[in-house]
Every structure is written in C-alpha cells, then in structure tokens.
C-alpha cells in the first residue's frame, strides 16, 4: 500500500532561498515545456511525448545555467507532472467530462517539487536535500515501510516534506459487524444501528472571523504589502478550518474501521449537489468526501470491506416492507402504512446496507 507521511520543515533563511529558487526554476520549466507542446501541436498536429521532452534536459542545462543548481531528478519530475496533466486531460475528454486543458502556472499555483528516487536522506533531525542543504525536520512519528519519493511543499509560508512510502497492510481482528451509513447535513452521518456522528461545522464556527479577514483583504490596495499580509492571514484561517475538518474525519473513520467489518456508504455526486446554493456551504462544511476516503483507505489496510451504492430512493423506501413513501427534506421521520416508524436517516442507512449486501452477494 502507498502511504504519505507529512512533516514540518524549519529551513534557515538561506535554505528558504534555495527552496524558492528550485520552485521558480521548476515552474518556469513547466511553463516552457507546456508552451513547446502547444506549439508543436499547432505546427505538426502532434504533441511532444514525455520521453522527447525529458531528453532535452541535458541540452537545456548547457544554455540555462540556473538549471544546474536544481537536482536532475527534480527536473525530470517536472516533465512527468506535465505529462500526467495531459493524460488526465485526455481521460476527461474520453469520458465526456469537463476537459480542463493544462494551464500555465503562476507563482501562486506552483508550490511543490519532488525528488522521485534519490537526492534526499534523513540524518537525525535533519533532512538532507541535494542542492538545498540540511534542513531541520520535525519527525513527530516514525516513517513506516520503504520511502519512494520526497516532495517539498510550501504553503502559507510554512514548509513541509511529504514522504510517499510503500507499507505492508496490517489486518485487524475479524469483525462480523455490518453497517450502512447515510451522510447528511444536520448530522455528518447516521448509521443503520441508530448511531449519529455529529457534524462539528468548523466553517460555520469560523465564519465571522473569515468575513472579517475577507473584508480586510478587499479594503487593501492591490499589490501592496498590507494586502499580501491580509491574504496570508485569510489563507491561514482557511487552512486551520480544513485541518480541523480533516482531523475530525480521521478520528471518526478510525472508529468505524476498528468496529465494523463491512461498511456501506451512499455513492453521492457531491460536485452536482453543491450546485444547490441553499445547501452548498453546509455540504462543503460536512466533509463527506474526506470521511468516505479515509474510511476506504483505512479499511483496505485493515482487511475490512467498504461498498458504495446508488442512493436512489433510499430515503423514500421503507426498510421494513419496501414500499415507497414520498416525503420532502423537511420531513425527518419515516412513517409507513405497515406501521414502521423510524428516523428518516436511519431508515435510509438500513436501505443502504441492504443494497450493499445485495450487490456483494
């Protein structure tokens, strides 16, 4: 399995300068390679391949001296990034999705570079990076498995190292317990056995502070130092909210995976759902996608099973007799002519579990 471990870096001013130098060289190279691909397609009708562009790197170094101060494999990874962007573009075109052609990167949109195989090592409390130096790193937990890549990332003036590792899965003791989960807004999730996972609403709690920070940004003159400072403060607050949501999802997903051997979720099209302007903010604040993702990868490692099912009619159908009982979103209690009465979301969670078991069987 692939796992990523993220650690905070504390570079000196000189090391910060080296990191930003490498970032800028990678960004400029990315934009240059993208321009060459576009020009080649316009002239010949065929784009350049990954290997064709990768082969030009030695020649580029002869003419651009700055590239010699960036590790060779970091530059190769820039070519790979662009190629992946093209592959994703063609995949979306093939699937009939919104295409999104690869874009030229401004400074604000290029914030990381990767050592794919070598050029980095951990020595005590230092991360040794080729062409950058020995950067102090806070190893708050032990790396597991075999380290494959190291990505250096800059976010809101903080520096991070992300290690992608191949780890062995660690199965948990077998559990026969099964559960269906209905995702919601008032509660993050309601389970088929009647439990409710509260939605902490971190965005709503920080909304007033966010409004103040946003007003401060809008009042500052564009391009001024004060505006840049206000933008940083706003970004840090948004990052804090995102980290709170992520931490909560990690904790709740761990509880679910530890207890249940079979977990069923509804397969929601969240991108379409957030187009509803009445519920968009609440849906985004709930963090449904993070919860499902975290449960899925934890379950894979623990030997558990996660299944997603089409949620069509799961809220309307009676879990006791199967009859369709139409009700609006305002109606929170399911009442059927068969006499069955239950919480609307709990009834939906039972239907989700039944559907998942049918699909598996």
Textual characterization of the structure:
- By secondary structure, this protein is an alpha+beta fold.
- The chain contains eleven helices and 14 strands.
- It has helices at 13-44, 50-54, 57-63, 72-94, 202-205, 207-219, 225-259, 270-273, 280-286, 288-302, 344-360, and strands at 2-10, 112-115, 120-123, 126-129, 133-138, 146-155, 158-166, 178-183, 187-191, 196-198, 262-266, 305-309, 333-335, 341-343.
- The strands form three sheets. The protein has a seven-stranded antiparallel sheet.
- Strand 8 and strand 9 (187-191) form a beta hairpin.
- Helix 7 packs across helix 10 (288-302).
- The longest helix has 35 residues, at 225-259.
- The two termini are 27 Å apart.
- The model has no long low-confidence stretch (mean pLDDT 93).
Radius of gyration (Å): 25 Å
Compute the number of helices: 11
Residue runs with pLDDT of under 50 for 5 or more positions:
none
Nearest-integer average pLDDT? 93
The percent range for helix content is: 40-55%
What fraction strand? 15-25%
**DSSP strand tally:** 14
For the termini, the CA-CA separation is: 27 Å
Shape: elongated
Structural class: alpha+beta
Run of helices and strands: EHHHHEEEEEEEEEHHHEHHHEEEH
Strand adjacency order, main sheet: 2-6-7-1-5-4-3
Largest sheet: 7 strands, antiparallel
